[in-house]
Each structure stands twice: as structure tokens, then as C-alpha cells.
């Protein structure tokens, strides 16, 4: 048995990966085990590994060291995968002969209750602190490096002190979770389950807007570089369009068309006369005759953004002038394979509700099996 690597306690996702193995082993005792316990590497088991960059490369090197230097795992790589795909894509880990004993020693996890069972026991014991339901809190173990289950739960209990403080989710998280403003991200629904009367101040969606002197339409732009290039007057294609930049899926937020849910920031050279008319339409006080378009990357994620945007701006559709140029380049093979830019996990949205997208753009991407980014169009 080897001593734990010095980096283990500082690498949260690998620690969680190791704990997942012990959890599964505890659920399936050796006496009834019919096949080796294994875990496939994907975005759910170790998210940072699937974000392109040095962090992912370093994580993969550390995982490989657990096979080669510490003899904990066997790594079985997926066969016949795209030659451009990272080698860890869908790789499967199983334990070597002494792997279970090694992990239990490193993690100080004796055979018995799994970490999830221990978490559920702590939640159940403290049930009386929460006026709402605890099922969502019990469903999945919440882990914080260096904190025991009871200490983590105590922080959720202390949320009760801020029920009517009018804090945003980030402010609440920072005050209760030791200065970490992002800990409660994606946990707002959990808080409302625990505390049905909890008031969380909405966090306005930040929207950048440019209004030209003459307006012929509204154009939502996915990427910042394209937006800044357009407002600088370097893209004749966009002339006479109100240009809107909201960064990805933020335009699908339910609050985006409510006055207290959005903050519109106008470029200094915007046509101020038209601002009132734009806001009257934006906040659904009146309709207008301007056509509404979306223009983003020619990939599945871009089409998914369009689909989501239509939930709030029903009239929006894909912008033909921009996408036709990209479509031509796609068919000329001036495009990239999904794995080349870590887009292999993007999901085909099926349909978007936009005829041009559903009948022209999506079929072209499916046929070519390639994507192209918006920034390729620069004039």
C-alpha cells in the first residue's frame, strides 16, 4: 500500500472520484459483487476534466499517476474514438487488486455506511431546523473540502437568519459559506424547498445594447467580439439593427423581460430617442414592426440558445445574412470537428421553432458533422 500523494487533499474532484468508488463498494459488498466496480469519466463524474485547458491536462496526468505510480486504478480507454478527441473521453476506471484497501486507507473510510448514508443521517437528525422539505437536501451528499457533514449542514441551518434580508443568491452564499459567493449557484431551488418563505433578491441580467440612428430590426448576437466589432461599425451586415449582447443562455432567464430582472446598458453612441420605444417592446407593453433575429455560432449550442431565447422572445428567428455566410464556409469545409474544440458533448437540440434553423441550418450540421464559430465573419 502506498502513501497518499501530497496533492490529493487539494484536488477536490479527484477526492470525490475516490469517494465515489468507496460509496459504490459499500453498496455492493464483495460477497455479492458480480463484476468490478467501475466509473466512467464524463462531465458528471469529474467536470473540470472536460473543460479545455491546462487544468484538464493536469487532472488527467494526476489520474494516470494513480494507475502508474500508486496502482489504485486500471484505466481502460474507449476504443475507436475520434483521433482528435482527448484520450480520457469516456475512459473507464476500475480498481487494481489493492486499490480498495489503498483508497480506504487514504480516505479513512472503513467498511460500513457510505458517505451518502452518513450525510442522510445528519440531515435526518437536524430535520427540525427546516420549516420546509428536506428530500432534495438528502438526495445528494454535499461535500466541501475540509468540512465534515455536520459543519456543512450547520451552514444551511444558519441560512434561516437571512430569510427576509433581501440578499441576492451570491451575497447570501458569500455571507454563509465563508466568503464563497458561488457555492449556492444552482442551489436556489434547494433553499426554497428548505425555507418556503425565503426571499432571494433577483440578480438582474446584464444586457448590452446599441441603437443606430435608423432602425430596421433587432439582432441578438451570441459572442462579445462580434458584438463589439458590429457596434464599431465594422460590419456592414449589421447596419440599421439594434444590437443586443447577453452572453449565451442568459436571454432565456424568466426575469429577462421584467423591469427588475434586467439591466439594459446602452452604448454611448446609441440613438436615445429610440430607447423608450425599445423598452416598451422589451417589457411587453407594446408590439413593434421590427423583425427580431438571433445570430451566433453555427453549432448545436448556438441553436440551443436560439431555442431558449424563443421562450422569452417568441418572434426571434435565425438571422439569414450572417448564417448564410457561415453555411457557405461550412460546405466549403472551412469548419472544425466538434472534438477539435471540445464541443463533442454538445447535444443536438432537435428543433428550435425557427423554420430556417430547423430546415436548413441543423440538417447541414448533421450532414457535415462539423461546426463553425461566429467570429469567422468579420465584415
What can be said about this structure in brief?
With 379 residues, the chain is α/β, with parallel strands linked by helices. It is built from 13 helices and 9 strands. The chain folds into 3 domains: 8-107, Arc Repressor Mutant, subunit A, CATH 1.10.10; 115-194, no CATH class; 205-376, Dna Topoisomerase Vi A Subunit, Chain: A, domain 2.
Strand order, biggest sheet? 7-4-6-5-8-9
The DSSP helix count reads: 13
Number of domains: 3
User: What are the secondary-structure elements, in order, as H or E?
Assistant: HEHEEHHHHHHEEHEEHEHEHH
**Helical residues, percent:** 25-40%
Oligomer kind: single chain
- CATH class of the largest domain reads Alpha Beta
N- and C-termini, Cα separation? 62 Å
Mean pLDDT: 87
Radius of gyration: 25 Å
Q: Structural class of the secondary elements? A: alpha/beta
Low-confidence stretches: none
Total E-strand runs: 9
CATH-derived architecture of the largest domain: 3-Layer(aba) Sandwich
